[in-house]
Design goal:
It is a single chain. By secondary structure, this protein is of the alpha/beta class. 45% of the residues lie in helices and 11% in strands. It contains 28 helices and 20 strands. Strands 6-5-7-4-8-9-3-10 form an eight-stranded mixed β-sheet, with helices on both faces. A six-stranded parallel β-sheet has the order 11-18-15-12-14-13. The chain has a two-stranded antiparallel sheet with strand order 1-20.
């Protein structure tokens, strides 16, 4: 296990450092050998030596928080030091301390003990205040100060007392040697002695999407006596698990949230399909397959591919990925003394970039897939397609795997009226889709760089090829693929991106760990976020670490609060039972009525994933994994129904949030109805979608301006306006009827609030 490594200790609150110092030092020694979990991989330059390593680097001490050491008050035994020598002259003492601080030799000596300039200065200020403000000092330091003042000793003799004080305000200095060992991340190949003890054969299956590279590697996996498949997604692990068992090769499944054994006696099968993070580096196999090896460069997950590549104990290791990763893999395998055989593959079906953009959704054809990079675009495009009388399937990253598969099946079914797919780049891997044409709605994609910073920039060549390659797959009913953009101005940029060579993976270095030149320390922002979230909860070192490594989406407040609640329950030694979790998530849950409800259900699904993940680490405290999995399947069905009716949910969201129908006073409804009728007459005969406004809205007509904008955006049509008018008129009639029956209500009289219309 790892705390990234010493940094998490440095992030402990100041008040907790002293209490944890001894526990940390003793706990780190037996547990923290070199650990690959924080390392990712980047390539070296062609001229760089594989043996180059980063030198010893000074840790980032800005994270060290000093403790407060209060000056000593009057002693009950009196000032013993003054009785043995004489009272100290504070003016003389101050001169001695200033001389001590300015000594270059002392500063250099402090650096040898881990005190850089910043820590040295902070420690000295605290030390001087302690000396000057104490009523009495310990006998030993009093005598030394007295001798220095009389010229019988040197100012340097204060260093042992200064260092003792520095360790009081910076307890981390006591763990300096342990921290140095922990943060020494050099020579990762040596962390896997079992793999180094065997001569592995490395085969790199290189090629673009839809070239058959993974197929050939999997065939070797099926024919082996034992094997492990390491995939980037649960969907891919499930796919290989099902294919293997269907082919008569017994195969187990291992993901972070799920374990499935196929043998009736529960014995492990000879083959296992897993997510790459879950692969075993101690179990011997005949064949190992590592899919999407280029993800070794990923800032957050690259460590898992590095660990698998260096550590899997297999006679043959088959790598599947982009050609850009070949040099990187060969460089790494040079450090292990293993040769790499490269097998090149070409795309099985042709694919072409069109010379014209889609321009309008009126030009959609069966088999089209519109790729968006935000949920808002997903919702907008889906709604506009529905207005045209077409059905669309929807796939995006935060949907549960079961829902993604259901939407893919709906789109692939030739007998289903759904012929259009609206998706994010989640389709780039893990799903078999029958796509004729890929349409990029935009080429700008939010991303997180190596420093954990959010960026908005055009997609990379690698990303564009991965997504575009989904069109015209060999196994689909479309034998040729096409790629284009929604907007004409994006088409030239797309062609430029696709023509570029895939950039080799560049060197990346960090400043807080000693690493070999071709490695970098992975982005630990999520880890640190979780650490800060639960820092006030009393947990043991091991348990705290496991909770910090739990995969959560920190953009989901409910998921974050659930991690906190789970940790709190654990610290109380209160098992998180099925009954407790049902109460916590307020089960049973209702089908979604709008997009917000759907997103809330997705968050609950993530919370159940979190429970299952923790249940395999703390079985006694999370005892009801099987019941929770059944509950999750039921929730998956609710979400699938919601996504199936996503355009209705979007419509409800627009109605209640954009128009705010329930908030309109009764007197304004008829007025709004009239303006909508007028707007409908003006817009009748024009295309609602993809067309620009022919008549600008009046700036001083509030409701008219809103209706006009909605029609221009394709969110309202004349038919919808008529339906809204009918509903409002019905509501107005009922309202007037109620007033007639109840009579006039004097000011201040309470009356029963009318229930909102169910529509």
């Amino acid at each position: 296990m790892s705390f990234s490594r010493a940094l998490l200790w440095a992030r402990l609150p100041a008040g907790r450092q002293a209490g944890h110092r001894a526990a940390i030092c003793s706990a780190l020694r037996p547990h923290f050998g070199p650990f690959p979990g924080v390392l990712g991989q980047v390539s070296v330059l062609a001229t760089a030596s594989s043996s180059a390593s980063g030198g010893s680097k000074i840790p980032n001490t800005s994270l060290f928080v000093p403790l407060t050491v209060k000056p000593q008050g009057p002693s009950a035994d009196g000032d013993v030091g003054a009785e043995l020598t004489r009272p100290l002259d504070k003016n003389e003492v101050k001169k001695v301390l200033d001389k001590f601080y300015k000594r270059k030799e002392i500063q250099k000596l402090g650096a040898d003990y881990g005190l850089d300039a910043r820590l040295f200065h902070q420690a000295f200020i605290s030390f001087r205040n302690y000396i000057m403000q104490s009523h009495s000092l310990d006998v030993d330091i009093h005598i030394v100060l007295n001798d220095i003042c009389f010229g019988a000793a040197h100012a340097d003799d204060l260093f042992p007392f200064f260092l003792r004080h520095a360790k009081q305000i910076f307890p981390v200095l006591d763990c300096k040697d342990d921290l140095r060992k922990i943060s020494d991340l050099r020579i990762p190949p040596n962390w896997y002695p079992d793999a180094r003890a065997m001569q592995r054969k490395i085969i790199f299956h290189s090629g673009p999407t839809n070239s058959g590279k993974t197929y050939h590697a999997i065939q070797k996996y099926f024919s082996a006596k034992s094997g492990v498949y390491c995939g980037p997604l649960k969907l891919l692990a499930h796919e290989i698990f099902e294919k293997s068992n269907a082919a008569g090769v017994p195969c187990d499944l291992v993901t972070g949230e799920e374990r499935v054994t196929v043998q009736p006696n529960g014995k492990q099968a000879s083959h296992v399909s897993c997510t790459v993070e879950m692969c075993s580096v101690t179990t011997p196999y005949e064949v190992a397959v590592i899919d999407e090896i280029q993800m070794i460069r990923d800032p957050a997950r690259g460590w898992a591919w590095t660990r698998a590549l260096l550590g899997l104990c297999a006679e043959e290791v088959h790598l599947c990925g982009e050609p850009a990763a070949i040099d990187l893999v060969m460089e790494l395998m040079y450090t292990t003394g293993e040769e790499v055989e490269v097998r090149d593959y070409k795309r099985l079906t042709p694919i072409s970039v069109l010379d014209h953009a889609l321009e309008s959704l009126d030009n959609l054809r069966p088999g089209d897939c519109i790729v968006c990079f935000s949920k808002n675009d997903i919702y907008s495009v889906s709604r506009q397609i529905e207005i045209r009388g077409l059905e669309s399937a929807v796939i995006y990253g935060s949907l549960p795997p079961g829902t993604k598969l259901a939407q893919a099946k709906k789109f692939n079914d030739p007998n289903d009226p759904c012929k259009i797919l609206v998706a994010t780049d989640a389709i780039g891997m893990g799903l078999n889709l029958s796509i004729r044409r890929i349409i990029f709605y935009s080429l700008i994609k939010p991303s997180i760089n190596e420093k954990g910073e959010r960026e908005l920039e055009p997609i990379t060549t690698s990303q564009a090829l991965q997504i575009a390659g989904r069109a015209g797959r060999f196994s689909s009913r479309f034998k040729e693929g096409e790629v284009t953009t929604m907007n004409h101005e994006d088409l030239s940029l797309l062609k430029e991106i696709l023509k570029r060579p895939v950039d080799p993976i560049r060197d990346i270095f960090v400043d807080f760990s000693q690493v070999d030149g071709q490695y970098f320390v992975c982005n630990m922002d999520d880890f640190k976020f979780s650490a800060e979230l639960i820092q006030h909860i009393p947990l043991s070192l091991r348990v705290r670490y496991v909770f910090c490594t739990a995969p959560i989406n920190k953009k989901q407040p409910f998921v974050c609060s659930s991690l906190l609640q789970f940790a709190r329950q654990y610290s109380r030694n209160e098992p998180l039972t099925f009954a407790w979790l049902r109460r916590y998530i307020k089960w049973p849950l209702l089908p979604p009525k709008n997009i917000k409800d759907l997103m809330d259900l997705e968050a609950v699904h993530d919370v159940l994933d979190l429970y299952l993940w923790l249940s395999y680490r703390f079985m006694d405290m999370f005892p009801d994994a099987s019941l929770i999995r059944d509950l999750q399947k039921e929730l998956d069905g609710i979400i699938q129904d919601g996504v199936h009716n996503i355009t209705k949910l979007i419509k409800m969201s627009e109605t209640h949030k954009l128009l705010n129908l329930e908030g309109f006073p009764s007197g304004s409804q008829s007025r709004l109805s009239g303006t909508l009728k007028s707007q409908a007459r003006r817009t009748r005969g024009t295309k609602a979608l993809g067309s620009k406004a022919t008549e600008p809205p009046s700036p001083d007509a509030g409701e008219l301006s809103l209706a006009s904008r909605l029609v221009q955006q394709g969110l309202l049509t004349p038919d919808m306006l008529k339906q809204l008018e009918k509903e409002w008129m019905t509501q107005q009639t009922e309202h007037n009827k109620e007033k007639t029956e109840s009579g006039t209500h004097p000011k201040g009289t309470r009356r029963k609030k009318k229930e909102p219309d169910s529509d």
